[in-house]
Structures are given as C-alpha cells and as structure tokens.
C-alpha cells in the first residue's frame, strides 16, 4: 500500500476531478449528500488504477435523475428499482445509488429493497470492510465505520458484520471473497473462511448466471489461483464446479503420477502468461482460461492403475470435453463459449503426437482445420500444459511446438490454410457425377476435402479425374 500522504493526495485528486466536482456541487446545491463509495475509494488508497466511479446519496432515484439530467450526455434508469441511476458525463460513466438498508428473506438472495437514510448505515450492509469505505464530496471526508482502512493496511478481507449474517443475507458474497482474494492479493480472515466452509450449501440459492459472472471475474484476475484454492478448500467449488476439487486424485505409493489439481493451477497460470505475452493490454481471454482450468477434468473418470507403477488416463481429452460442455451449460455460458472451450479440451493432446515424430503436411493441415478459429488459443493451451520439472523434456516439447508453428506459418504462405475447402463445390460435384442433392454429394465432398488436406491444392483437371475414379469405385 502507498504512503498515507500519497493515499490522501489520490483521494483529493479524485474528489477534485471535473466529473466528481461537478456532481458534488450539483447535489450540494440541491440539498443532498453525495459520496464516492466502495471500489474507487479502496483502489485509490491502494494505489491501484481506478476504473469506475460509484456514488451513493440520500437522494431518491427520481430526485437523482432531476439533479443529474442537466449535467449528463446520457442517463439511464435500468437499475431504478434498486435505487441506481447511471449516467455518462464526457468520457466517464458513473452510477449513483440511493442509500440502502435492505432486508433478506433467507430463502433467496434477492433483497427486499429498502432505502436508508445514512451513509454509515449503507456502508455497514456492504460485503467487506475494504469496500465499506466512502469519500464525502465536496467536503473530501473519508468515512470508515467498519475500520476498512485498518484491513487495507493488514491486507485482510473480513465482513463488516458477522460473516454468518452477511453470507446468510447474500451467499454470493462467499464467491466475492474468493475473487477479491485473487484480485487484491489479500488473505481472508479465519472467521470468514470458517463461515464460508459452514455455509457453502447456501450458494445453491444463487442463480447460475450470477455464479457464472463471479467465476468469470475470478478467472479474469492476473492470478486466480488463490481464489480457486479458497473455493476448493471451503467446499464451495463442490457446489457449482465439482470437477475442480475432483482433480485432487489420491496418489498411491506404488503408482506415481503428478498432482493433477496442482498441475491444473499451474496450467492456468502459464496460459495467462502466454496470453498476456501475445496480447499485452487486451482484455482477459476467459475462453482460454476456462479451457486451462477444465482441460484435465476427464482424468478422474479415466484413471487406470497399470502394471509397473504406471497410471493412465486414456481418452481423458474426449471425456473432459463432454464434461466441460455439460458443466458450462449448467452455468449458463453462451453456446459460443461452450463450443470453444470443449473444442480446445478435446484437441489439447493432439500436439503430443507431433512431438513424438514429424508430421506430414497433411497432418499439419488437419491440425489447423480441426482447430479452426481456436488455433491460437490451442497454441497457448498446449504450451501451458507443459509443466514438467524435467528441463530436457520441457525444452524438447517447446522446440517441437516452435517447429509446428513455423510449419503452419510456412504452409500459410504457400496456400490459404485458414480456409481449407474442397477444390470443387457441391454444384460442380453434382454436374460431374450426374447426382441430385443427397448424401452421396456429402460423401463426395468429404473425399475431396480429405484429398485437399492430404495433397494440397491440385489442378482442376486432376481433381475431376480423381473424383471420377473415386466414384467409380463406390
């Protein structure tokens, strides 16, 4: 954490920025309170980049609209029922929420929305003390009823009230604890972890969509491992992602294999490293990170103890792809994400055949064809999957993949490898063979695609002759 002087200077700079000062003056002139709250204040104190400006006020939503409308380039009230009004002022997007004093029925995580009348009351109902911070503007007064600054200094996550009560009100906060542990690099207090463990089953009242969103935010951190480990340790992962804790396979003294769970966390870490190296400054690639997290989930179901102390996991790629598809659908991921992640898992072992012996040009074309638009992610996942401590083996695999990528690039220069298609279309096939639309045309197109993959582009006359000869033999 930065020095006290630096923290105060950042808070003052934020409070005196054009957008904040304009809003602060407008609310004050209207006789209402306004405070920056939560993440922006926390991040300013930590010296982290501030991305979003969240405010809280004693003004009710309709009154907030009246105050903000003359200042805003655009405004929206999609969150009005929860007291939140959004607005865009120049390049900044802000959210302003009326003080809340919600109550929960204990059966769902949807609160009965009740507006509060004090800033301190609003802060105490928040998830963690480090987020229960506010900066009154224009006065520039820090409000910290739950001693969140002390916890920032100690780098600890704890709830402003009893964690049992906090998590009972909103079980999603348990997943947020895991996310903030990774995002901020903070430890979670012992009583908070104990409550997460005891109340893990409460997460089942939270919708799959909200769980999915928290998982995505966790995986979007630069180092998601601490949060993932906390979810496994507390039993929360068993409730919505049981395939992850299942990777902690029993290792028997006579059959040796690497720790699949630890290997998985390492693969996630390395995949993020490759992603950031190849695409610096870009948004996190959640598809790649999900594939890294789930790439070996087929191993528990395919584990076999062989003679000679060998452990095998035959076809865990295919089994894992099916399990991943089922789990991601249950978490309400989009069809595109489900397809991409399951495809990457299905293909993640394909390269290791290349490392055992040089592929033909045909095999390289098929690798590219099968990967499709996931080829670059497959490169990153495959490289990340090498976690051996045997430097000689790691170097051999790395050199082999360098060679494969070089061959793909070379073939791309020779032909349009990204869009490998048969040299004839369906209309030409029907004309040459005298066919009508039907399954025979599909079989002929498959033959032509295999021919194209095996031998590359061929002259039109030769393709037609080969097609006729194939058809004559059917």
TrEMBL record:
SMART domains: HDc. GO terms for biological process: RNA repair; tRNA processing. Residues 256-399 form the HD/PDEase domain. Keywords: ATP-binding, Magnesium, Metal-binding, Nucleotide-binding, Nucleotidyltransferase, RNA repair, RNA-binding, Transferase, tRNA processing. CDD domains: HDc, NT_ClassII-CCAase. Its EC number is 2.7.7.72. Its cofactor is Mg(2+). It is an enzyme of class 2 (transferase). It holds the Pfam family PolyA_pol. One of its GO terms (molecular function) is RNA binding. This is CCA tRNA nucleotidyltransferase. It comes from Humibacter ginsenosidimutans. The lineage of its organism: Bacteria, Bacillati, Actinomycetota, Actinomycetes, Micrococcales.
């Amino acid at each position: 954490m930065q020095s006290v002087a630096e923290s105060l200077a950042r808070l003052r700079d934020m409070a005196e920025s054009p957008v904040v000062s304009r809003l602060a003056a407008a609310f004050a002139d209207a006789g209402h309170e306004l405070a920056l709250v939560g993440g922006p204040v926390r991040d300013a104190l930590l010296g982290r980049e501030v991305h979003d400006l969240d405010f809280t006020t004693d003004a009710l939503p309709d009154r907030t609209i009246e105050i903000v409308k003359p200042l805003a380039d655009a405004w929206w009230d999609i969150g009005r029922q929860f007291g939140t009004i959004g607005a865009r002022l120049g390049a900044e997007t802000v959210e302003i929420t009326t003080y809340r004093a919600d109550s929960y029925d204990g059966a769902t995580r949807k609160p009965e929305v009740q507006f509060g009348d004090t800033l301190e009351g609003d802060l105490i109902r928040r998830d963690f003390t480090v987020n229960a911070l506010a900066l009154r503007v224009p006065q520039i007064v820090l409000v910290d009823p739950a001693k969140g600054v002390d916890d920032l200094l100690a780098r600890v996550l704890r709830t402003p009230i009893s964690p049992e009560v906090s998590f009972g009100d909103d079980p999603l906060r348990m997943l947020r604890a895991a996310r903030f542990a990774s995002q901020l690099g903070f430890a979670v207090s012992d009583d908070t972890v104990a409550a997460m463990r005891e109340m893990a089953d409460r997460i089942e009242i939270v919708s799959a969509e909200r769980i999915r969103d928290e998982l995505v935010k966790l995986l979007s951190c630069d180092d998601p491992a601490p949060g993932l480990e906390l979810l496994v340790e507390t039993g929360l992962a068993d409730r919505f992602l049981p395939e992850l804790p299942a990777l902690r396979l029993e290792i028997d003294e006579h059959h040796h294999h690497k720790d699949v769970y630890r290997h998985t966390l390492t693969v996630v870490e390395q995949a993020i490293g490759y992603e950031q190296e190849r695409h610096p400054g870009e948004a996190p690639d959640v598809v790649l990170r999900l594939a890294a997290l789930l790439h070996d989930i087929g191993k528990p179901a395919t584990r076999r103890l062989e003679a000679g102390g060998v452990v095998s996991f035959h076809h865990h790629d295919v089994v894992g792809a099916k399990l991943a598809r089922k789990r991601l659908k249950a978490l309400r991921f989009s069809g595109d994400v489900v397809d991409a992640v399951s495809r990457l898992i299905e293909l993640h072992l394909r390269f290791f055949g290349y490392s055992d012996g040089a592929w033909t040009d045909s095999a390289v074309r098929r690798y590219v064809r099968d990967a499709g638009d996931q080829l670059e992610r497959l490169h990153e996942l495959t490289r990340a999957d090498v976690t051996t401590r045997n430097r000689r083996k790691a170097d051999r695999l790395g050199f082999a993949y360098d060679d494969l990528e070089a061959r793909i690039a070379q073939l791309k220069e020779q032909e349009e490898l990204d869009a490998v298609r048969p040299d004839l279309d369906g209309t030409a096939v029907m004309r040459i063979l005298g066919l009508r639309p039907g399954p025979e045309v599909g079989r002929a197109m498959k033959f032509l695609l295999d021919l194209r993959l095996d031998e590359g582009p061929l002259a039109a006359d030769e393709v037609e002759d080969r097609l006729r000869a194939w058809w004559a033999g059917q």
